[in-house]
Amino acid sequence: MHDFREWRPHPWHGLEVGPQPPTLVTAYIEITPFDLVKYEVDKPTGYLKVDRPQQGASSPPTLYGFIPSTYCGPRVAMLSPGATEADGDPLDICVVSERPITRADIILTARVVGGLRMIDDDEADDKIIGVLAGDPVWGGATDLDDLPVALVNRLEHYFVTYKNMPGAPLRARVEARYDMAHAGTVIEAAIADYDELFRPA
After folding, report:
1. Residue ranges of domains in the chain
2. Domain 24-198 is classified in which CATH homologous superfamily?
3. Predicted confidence (pLDDT) per residue in 7-17, tens digit
4. Average pLDDT, whole number, for the chain?
5. How many CA atoms does the CB half-sphere of 29 hold within 13 Å?
6. Closest Cα partner for 92 from 127, 123, 62?
7. Are strands 127-132 and 48-53 parallel, antiparallel or unpaired?
8. Beta strand 24-31 pairing with 127-132
C-alpha cells in the first residue's frame, strides 16, 4: 500500500507538529519575503487566503507561517507576563533559508533556534525562529546567537510595524528575544494548549 492521504489535510489540524519537537518542527509557510500581500490560512477550510495588502513598505525578512497542531492559549499566555491572554492562533514561526523560497502554501522541517516574545494588543503573539533543516549555510545553527543580529533586528522591526498604517501608533511590541531552550518551552506549552482544546481526553 502507498502511504498517502486521499484528501488534502488541513494544515493546522491535519499535520503533525514535527519529527522531533520542540527541536525539529513542521512549518506551514503562509508568506514569503517576496510577497507584498499578507496571506494566511482560512481557519474553517484550510485554504490559503488573502488577508490584506502589506500596510507599509516592508516585507517579511524570512519565510513566515505556523507550527501545525499548536495553539496559543493559557499556557502560552503564562509565559508572557505582559499579556492578558494569548491570541488564539497556531504558534507562529519564521524560517531562515539560504536559497530563496518564493512560494507559500508549502510545508518544511525547521530547526528551532529561538524566538521573540511579542505582545500585540495585549495578547501573547510569540514568534518562534528557526532555520531550514539541512540548509547548507544555516542548517548548523542551534541558537539565536548563530544568526546575524541584523536579521533578528529586521524580524523584530517587521513584526512591530507590519499591521500599522504609516504614521499610526504602534500596536505591538517585542518584550524579549529568547534562546532555543525557552523556544522549546513555548512550543511545548502551545502543544499542550492544542491538545486540551482540540484533543480532549
Report:
1. 24-198
2. Inorganic pyrophosphatase (3.90.80.10)
3. 889 999 999 99
4. 93
5. 26
6. 127
7. unpaired
8. unpaired
Residue 53 reports pLDDT greater than 90:
no
Residue 198 has pLDDT above 60, yes or no: yes
189 contacts 74 by C-beta, under 8 angstroms? no
Q: Under a CB-based contact definition with an 8 Å cutoff, are residues 67 and 91 in contact?
A: yes
Torsions phi, psi for 144 (to 5 deg): -60, -35
H or E element at residue 197: helix 180-198
Mean pLDDT of 141-160: 95
- Is a pLDDT exceeding 70 seen at residue 105? yes
Cα torsion 113, 41, 90, 123: sign = positive
The CA distance from 124 to 133, in Å, is 27
Q: What is the pLDDT at residue 5?
A: 76
| 114/32 Cα distance (integer angstroms) | 20
E strand or H helix at 191, and its extent? helix 180-198
Is 163 a residue whose pLDDT tops 80? no
Mean pLDDT of 114-127: 96
Helices and strands, number each (H, E), in the chain: 3, 10
Q: Parallel, antiparallel, or unpaired for β 106-120 and 123-124?
A: antiparallel
Q: Which amino acid is at 103?
A: R
Helix (H) or strand (E) holding 77: helix 74-78
